[in-house]
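During the reporting period the student researcher (J.K.) took over the structure-prediction task from the postdoctoral fellow and processed the backlog of single-chain submissions. One of the processed entries is reproduced below for the supervisory committee.
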Amino acid sequence: MPEDKELPMEGFEPDDDIEIEFLDQEDNDRGAGDQVVKDEPEGLEPMPGGTEEEEAQHLKAELDHVRDIYLRKLAEFDNFRKRVEREREENRLAGVEEMVRELLPVIDNFDRALQHAEDDSGAFLQGIEMIAKQLWDTLERRGVAEVNPVGQPFDPEIHEAVQRVEDGEHPPGTVAWVMLKGYTMGDRLIRPAMVGVAVDPNDTSNDGGGGP
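J.K. obtained the following structure tokens:
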């Protein structure tokens, strides 16, 4: 067998201290160019270096900014809620108004029937009167009101003139008779009253037709 040969140990002294450096695994995995980024609170800018007073002012400014955003969003939501409620109410009123408008011919027919049956005191007339009253009470609870403007000044906003009337009983420009009653619901005009307007028979400017 060949003899074991000792390896040269030139420059090595047994008493020399050997330094071993242990590297953290995270440091070892991270590349040399990687930077350690400290977490900052979400939504806040990194706090500038400076005195405690400067840092306090910075935090106060951030707080004011967040409060301003909160108040603006709160106002936007309140406006949105009011708009939705207003549109819902308008849609409800429009639906009721359409229903009432469709019922007006029924009310007109009740009025005509009662006018032509005034001399009848039988049970049939009483039944018709009860039905008409029940229908009208229901509409009144919905805010429906009658426009029956005999003797009142003519108002083109709520009246529709269909005839001139040479009537000495009513002053010129007032409603002399009502051909068809008008109706309102709250502040809404559902149907204008169709009326005849009194004119001065001695006023020649009224000749030739035209509106009142």
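The committee noted the following: The chain has a mean pLDDT of 76.
J.K. will present the remaining backlog at the next meeting.
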